[in-house]
Specification:
This protein folds into 2 domains: 76 residues, Beta-grasp domain (Ubiquitin-like (UB roll), Roll), CATH 3.10.20.30; 66 residues, Orthogonal Bundle (DNA polymerase, domain 1). It is built from 6 helices and 5 strands, in the order ββαβββααααα. A 5-stranded mixed beta sheet has the order 2-1-5-3-4, sandwiched between helices. α3 crosses α6 and α4 crosses α6. A hairpin with a 2-residue loop joins β1 and β2. By secondary structure, the chain is α+β, with helices and mostly antiparallel strands.
Length: 156
């Protein structure tokens, strides 16, 4: 049995302690916005926040999450897609296929919580998610647009 707080809701889950958090979120909780991409924490499609820190959930065993830690998925970032990063993604038409974008948005929101005005070097260092469509220039532009809103440190 594991006790997790996901998007502000405490949940008791019967699960093997070695089960990756990604599968608990998707299969047991039913929040499918967090995606499976590679299974080795390389691509970032599975990115969620744990206490505000962008974390790749595909390799994190549920036993490594403390019962009081706050897990935020893409569904919990904002109830109406009004988070500044989501709004910037829409304004700049960032996604093509969209598969990686939930993880990319979560990584960008995590970056902006830690560094509200990142330089290109900061974005390069922190946003290591893989996008097969190659929308990296639009991702960078959207992160900078979201940073201009000044609201990114208060949410997510």
């Amino acid at each position: 049995m594991a006790r997790l707080i996901i998007n502000g809701t405490p949940r008791d889950i019967e699960v093997d302690p070695d089960t990756p958090l990604l599968w608990v979120i998707r299969e047991q909780i039913g929040l499918t916005g967090t995606k499976y991409g590679c299974g080795v924490a390389a691509c970032g499609a599975c990115t969620v926040h744990i206490d505000g820190v962008a974390t790749r959930s595909c390799v994190l065993p549920v036993s490594a999450v403390e019962p009081d830690q706050q897990i935020t998925t893409i569904e919990g970032l904002s109830p109406d897609s009004s988070h500044p990063v989501q709004q910037a993604w829409l304004a700049l038409d960032v996604p093509q296929c969209g598969y990686c974008q939930a993880g990319m948005i979560m990584a960008a929101a995590g970056l902006l919580m830690q560094n509200p005005n990142p330089a290109d070097e900061d974005i390069n260092a922190e946003i290591t998610n893989i996008c097969r469509c190659g929308t990296y220039n639009r991702v960078r532009a959207a992160i900078k647009l979201a940073a201009k809103s000044g609201e990114t440190t208060q949410r997510g």
